[in-house]
Every structure is written in C-alpha cells, then in structure tokens.
Design brief:
The chain is an all-alpha fold. The chain has six helices and no strands. Helix 1 runs antiparallel to helix 2 and helix 1 packs across helix 4.
C-alpha cells in the first residue's frame, strides 16, 4: 500500500510538469492560430516534442527511485503510476482550456479561422481545382461549430476526455519504461 501512495506522490509531481508542457503546447497553438506568429508556432512545436519525450523521461526517473526495501516495480504498479501521471496532466490541460475559453478567447478563435479562410479565398484564381468548394465546406463547418454555442466547460471536458484517453493508451507503453525487475543479487551478509 505504501508503494502505491509513493507512486501517487511521484505521479502528481510528474503529471503537473507534463500538464504544464501540454498547457504550453495549447497556448502556442492558440497564439499561432490567432496571430500567425512563427515564434508561437515554434513554441508549440517544442512543447509538442516535450510532450512526447517527457512521459518516457518521467517513467525512467520513477524506475530509478529507491523504494522502501522494494527490489522491483511490477508492470501493474508502473501502469498505475503512468495512468495517474496522465490523469493529473489531463486535469491541468482541461483547466487551462477552460480558463482560456471562459475569460480570454471571446470568440477570437473562430474569428481567426474565418480570417484564414477569407485570406485563402482572396487568391481563388491561384488555388488548385476543387479547393474553392473545399473552402466553402470548411466555412459551413465553422458556421455550424460557431452556431452550436459550445460552452467553455464543455470544451474543457472534451479536452479532459481526449487527453485521458490518449494518456490511457500511452500508459501501456510508458509503464514498460517504469517497470523494474527485482534485483537478483543476494543481500550482503552481516
């Protein structure tokens, strides 16, 4: 039981850091879409690479932590750690999504999507064949999304569910990195 409490403690710490990386990726994406800033796009790409590498790094760090006389970490123990880590990261990502859409966005995300489609529409004569119809379909899709009036809490819950499902799948893989075989060397003779 103590080992699972220790796993939860480290998962909380590492999940918070992973959630921070997810929040940076979300912020970079929103800034990049709204402003077209290449620096924000670079931030998003760096954060995306960190979001891929960090779970494996944290799982390896967890594997190397000494536990109260425990020689190994079973796969199910490592799976528990990995899932809890992704759970905390998902909560932080959902909170950041809620804060952004509740108090910061005010429709700017949808407006920037309309602006990017309008910018492409200005150069209709240079577009490949069939692209004009595709732009019209995209505009209709954005109109439908804007017309739904999705609330910030619904967007946050959607983000939480998406991150949690991805974390559940990734936990199966990262648990392999957190698993540690028992030490086969005999204890020293006093």
């Amino acid at each position: 039981m103590q080992n699972y409490m220790t796993a939860r403690m480290f998962a909380r710490e590492y999940g918070t850091l992973l959630g921070g990386a997810w929040a940076m990726m979300f912020a970079g994406a929103m800034i990049s879409i709204r402003t077209g800033s290449s620096l924000a796009t670079l931030l998003m790409l760096v954060a995306a690479i960190a979001c891929i590498a960090l779970p494996f790094y944290f799982a390896t760090r967890y594997k190397n932590k000494p536990f109260n006389g425990e020689n190994g970490i079973s796969y199910f123990h490592a799976l528990y750690f990995s899932f809890i880590m992704f759970f905390y990261a998902s909560m932080i990502a959902a909170a950041v999504t809620f804060i952004y859409f509740q108090w910061m966005d005010h429709g700017a995300f949808i407006d920037s999507l309309y602006a990017s489609i309008a910018e492409l529409g200005k150069h209709q004569d240079e577009l490949p064949q069939g692209m004009t119809e595709m732009l019209e379909k995209e505009k209709d899709l954005i109109n439908q999304i804007a017309g739904m009036g999705i609330k910030p809490i619904e967007q946050a819950l959607g983000m939480f569910n998406q991150c949690l499902i991805c974390g559940l799948i990734a936990s199966v893989i990262t648990a392999l990195f957190a698993k540690r075989e028992p030490d086969s060397t005999p204890p020293p003779i006093p």
